[in-house]
Amino acid sequence: xxxxxxxxxxxxxxxxxxxxxxxxxxxxxxxxxxxxxxxxxxxxxxxxxxxxxxxxxxxxxxxxxxxxxxxxxxxxxxxxxxxxxxxxxxxxxxxxxxxxxxxxxxxxxxxxxxxxxxxxxxxxxxxxxxxxxxxxxxxxxxxxxxxxxxxxxxxxxxxxxxxxxxxxxxxxxxxxxxxxxxxxxxxxxxxxxxxxxxxxxxxxx
Length: 205
Known about the structure:
By secondary structure, the chain is an alpha+beta fold. 54% of the residues lie in helices and 17% in strands. The protein is globular, with a radius of gyration of 17 Å.
């Protein structure tokens, strides 16, 4: 049966594997379809990724992903109004720790990927030609899982900056907990909290 963790992994993996697609020539729907299919194929073919090799996933992100994702916008949106209060150094640390958090959060779902496929769903036209939501379903055994992607146009490229899993937008979900931590302990408190969480997850592997 499908699990929420599979859906969460696929949402993160789509953010990670947007390279290899000729985005200048590709509509956002086709981009998401191709990226999602490549993600599933890569997981099925690579035993180390499927087993949740976090270091390999992080290396993949650094080498191929970040140029194709507006991760700064994603992090800034998750931090919310406090982002402008952060120094450039704090912003960089927040981006780095948030990226590791996402990778580690979803890597545990890799082993559950089996025969899933991705299907595009009809999307409503966007009033802003530079912003679009692409709707998909992950299908296999069990009920389909909803995955929606927010993309923005940057020059000739389309870049992902948020993902909706089963009705919950990723950035909004983190924004609430981040705001609570910053309110209690400041921006450095959030950075340290993320770093501690990532270190703990690493040592438990």
